[in-house]
Write the structure tokens for this entry.
Amino acid sequence: MHPPAVISARGARRWHGGHPWVFRSDVVQPPDSPPGAVAVRDQQGRSLGWALWSPASEISLRLLDRDPDALIGEGWWHARIAHAIARREPLAAHANAYRLVHGEGDGLPSLVADRFDRWVVVQLLSAGLEAFRDEITESIRSLTGAEGVLARNDASVRAREGLARLVEPLWGDVPQEIEVREHGVRYLAAPHTGQKTGAFLDQRENRVLAGSIAKGSALDVFSYHGSFALHLARNAADVTAVDSSAEALERASENVALNGFKNVSLVQADAFEFLREREKAGARYGTIVLDPPAFAKNKASLEGAMRGYRDVNLHAMRLLETGGLLFTASCSYHVSKALFLEMLQEAAAAAGRRMILRRITTQPLDHPEVITIPETGYLKGALLEAAD
Ligand code: SAH
């Protein structure tokens, strides 16, 4: 039995406040053990529970269990993962791809697992977690019956943990392309090479929302593989999907064909320029979706990012016909819900449109945002209507 990690009063306060991380500066005495699960105490010697230990990381400890008697082994992982998977059961009726484990949001710090039909893609994002890769793989395999489990361990945060960045199978085989069914549309996910773990699963409910209210001529800006466009195509007269990446649009084109839609066209363009050009041409749309990439990658880039969000939203608002609808999102963690709404206010004012806020959207069931752990939340959206 290794001696436990000892953390400062500030570190302990963080845990008591419902946040699972302890930073390096709050570790008074690091555990003399390799990455894995370690017991944690405060400076008075009181047991605080068990945590994942990452010696190379700024986030040294991630709380697993407050019970000092917990046994962090196969059974523990199995029970926690089973609980997370059970929460998602209602989703299976309408979609075959969704997140099974959302890290800290599911009490499984630094673990991501996404289901794509009969396969699962995981990310092991800390050194402490990596020590349990066999237990985790086996639990996921036995709980889901997956035919293959792929590790998309190429995420950049792995470098900060002193871990190699690579994509490798953990169990069986995972195909290059997997057909996703999502509330009546189908699209191909690319688990080995696609963004995130192969698709933007976090926007599933927003795509359904946008599809359900779509009308007239519709725009899907920052369309990636066209997943919003597919939902829009069901109710809109026609849809234009815009993305700067030719590769993304190639996929979008396959997805349009897969669904047999004849009313979708694809445009390779810079979104900022495209929206301005359409405005100059006097175009008007009944529905617009804006789903930009995370413009704010860190705090330092926040100001520039806000300008970018304001710009695309302003021009999209100007392009709406009276009664037209805009669904707009931001997936930047650094853009808070408050900042997002403030940005929309400014955009509406600058656009000279009276915009009605019809709905604010948060993360879906499979991406739980724990209110005491801000890092579990990043995606926010709004549905707005141009009143006149
Ligand atoms: N809406 C998609 C996800 C969008 S991801 C979905 O639900 O699946 C963001 C997309 O924006 C990427 O495909 C990227 O190629 C594109 N992109 C980034 N910068 C852009 C720009 N300036 N103009 C147009 N597209 C851009």
About this structure: The mean pLDDT is 97. The pocket of S-adenosyl-L-homocysteine is lined by residues 200, 203, 222-225, 227-228, 243-245, 248, 270-272, 291, 293 (CB under 6 Å).
